[in-house]
DNA sequence: CTTGACCCTATAGTGGCTAGAGGGTGCAGC
DNA sequence: GCTGCACCCTCTAGCCACTATAGGGTCAAG
């Protein structure tokens, strides 16, 4: 009996909101194991693959790098292990995200300041261009 | 008389807080014009180059893409032009930055929620791993 | 058989750098 | 003049996470 839960790559893509080329990419870099093939050389994915790919995509959506996801997958497979390592990964990632937010907020403030200095006119009187041209270079 | 303001690439790099390889990269992609060379094939940069590179670096620091900077440079060279185009570039960039901040804040909230659900223990009881494994996949 | 939807591999590209290999130049000190 | 060190040069490939494209095969309905 043909296993009804085996998926072709397009089905898996639809089921997980992933592009087909991205699935192939993940296989290439070893993040997703290569599945068995049909007689026609089509990939045949099981539920296990679908679950793993969903995990990957959720983690990506949360901004984890592929290497971090690799680590999370390894941790998740080790069911007897203490989950402090997972906590540490999430914590450090959260810190990075918060740092990035702070950076962007500083950047946004400066852009707003520049915008507010603009009074219209021509380029040779442009306060924005002036700001980009004349402030001391930050190291 | 040798022009005292001519800089070697290392000097220009130091003066503008840019890496040498980055200066060469900008020249390669046409963002910074190729300077004249010494007899020994060293690049000889003028004040004009330094000013242009400073402009580029300030714009990069504000998160503008190289293509946007290309556009800003063109606008800044057209001194009789109305500066509304500059304003528009800055505005749309600010919107992008604000959108990115909002995205990251949503992401940070979710990571915090995940962290707070963690009660320690082993992986098979790990709420973080559960969250990554079981939520409905977002399209 | 034909056709259209789907699948396959391989390669190169995106953006903004960055690293490294292999070789040349300039100048101070001996 | 020679040496050694700091600097310069070109070229190529790589980083990260995809993404596009070329060229060809498979499958199933009509």
From TrEMBL, chains A, B:
**What taxonomic classification does the UniProt entry list for its organism?**
Bacteria, Pseudomonadati, Pseudomonadota, Alphaproteobacteria, Hyphomicrobiales
Taxonomically, which superkingdom? Bacteria
Alphabetically list the UniProt keywords.
Answer: DNA-binding, Transcription, Transcription regulation
* HTH merR-type domain sequence ranges: 6-75
GO MF, one term, reads: DNA binding
The source organism is Afifella marina DSM 2698
Q: Which Pfam families does its entry note?
A: MerR, MerR-DNA-bind
| Identification of the protein by name | Cu(I)-responsive transcriptional regulator
């Amino acid at each position: 009996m043909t296993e009804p839960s085996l998926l072709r790559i397009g089905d898996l893509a639809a089921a997980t909101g992933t592009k087909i080329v991205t699935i192939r990419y993940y296989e290439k870099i070893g993040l997703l194991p290569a599945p068995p093939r049909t007689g026609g050389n089509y990939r045949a994915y099981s539920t296990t693959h679908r679950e793993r790919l969903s995990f990957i995509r959720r983690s990506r959506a949360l901004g984890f790098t592929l290497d971090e996801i690799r680590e999370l997958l390894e941790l998740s497979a080790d069911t007897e292990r203490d989950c402090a390592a997972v906590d540490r990964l999430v914590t450090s990632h959260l810190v990075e995200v918060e740092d990035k937010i702070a950076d962007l907020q500083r950047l946004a403030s400066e852009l707003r300041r520049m915008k507010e200095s603009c009074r219209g006119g021509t380029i040779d009187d442009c306060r924005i261009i002036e700001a980009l041209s004349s402030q001391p270079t930050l190291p």
